[in-house]
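Purpose: get a first structural picture of the assembly so the mutagenesis plan has something to point at.
Setup: two entries, given in the order below. No constraints added.
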Amino acid sequence: MESPAARTAADDLALIRRMMDAGRQKAAFDGAHLMIWGAVLMVSYLLQYLQVYGHIPGGSLVIWLPAFALGWTSSFLYGRNACAHDGEPNIAVTAYNGAWLAVGITMVLHFAAAVASTAFNPKAITVLACGVIASAFYVISLVTELKALRAVAAGWWLILIFATVQKTYDAEMLLVLAGASALLILLPGQMMRRLAHQGAAVAK
Amino acid sequence: MSFDYRIIDDVIHSRVRLAIMSFLATAREADFVAIKKALKVSDGNLSTHLKKLEEKNYVLVSKQFIDKKPQTKIKMSPEGEVAFRAYVEGLAAMIGPSANDKT
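Result (C-alpha cells, whole complex):
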C-alpha cells in the first residue's frame, strides 16, 4: 500500500475504484459458471449416450431442455449474487461475461432452430459448440492472462477438427464430448476458482 | 458546499481498511491470501486491520480447513455495507457532484 502522506479525498476515491475493480474481477473470474456448465454438459452428454442405447426413454429434448434450464438458472442466480452490490463492470469483466453469454445465446438459438425445423444435425451442433467454446476460452485467456486457457481453447479446436473429419458420426462422439466437458470446462473452472481464491486469476 | 466531517468513519478511513472494504464490496467474499495479494500488504499488517474491522462488526471472518490447509474467509457484513456506502457518499459529497461519476 502507498504512504498515506498528503492524502486527499480524490485519492481515496481512486483507491476505492481500483480495489472495487479488483474485487469485481475476483468475483467474475472465480470459475463457478464454468464448473456449473461443465458438470451440466458432462451429465447431459452421458445421459444422451445412454439414451441412444435405449437405457433412457424419450428424445433429446427430455435431456437438453432441463440441462439448459438448469445451466441458465444457475448462471443467472450465481451471477446476480456475485454482482449484487452494484456496479459498472470493467472491460475485462464485460469481455469475460460477454464471451460466455455469446456462447450460450449461439447454442440455444442453434438448438432451438434445429429442433423447430426438424433439421437437427448432431455433427453441425458439435462443430459449432466446439468453435464458440474455443473462441470464448481464447478471449478469456487474453483478458485473464492465464496462458493455460489457451491450451484449453486449442483442445476445443482439436475436437472441432476431429468432429469435422469423422465420416460416420456415432454415439461414441457423445462420450468424447462428455470427457471434453469434464476436462476442458469443469477442470479449467476449478483451476480458475482456485487461482481466484489465491488472488491470482485477475486481469491486470 | 457545507460538509459534516463527523460522517467520515474513522475505522474505514485508514487507507488499508478502506482498500479492504472496497475490495470486499464487489468481491463479496475473499480469502486472506487473495486480499493480501490485492492490497500488497504483509500478513501482520492485514491481520491487524482485519481485526479492527471485525471488532466493529464490519467484516465477518471465518476459518476452515481445505485439503488440510487452513483458510481464512472474509466477508463484508450488512453493517459494513451500510458504513462503506455512507463513507463513499461522504467522500463524494466532499469533492462535489462530479465525483459520483468516478466510482
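The mean pLDDT of chain B is 84.
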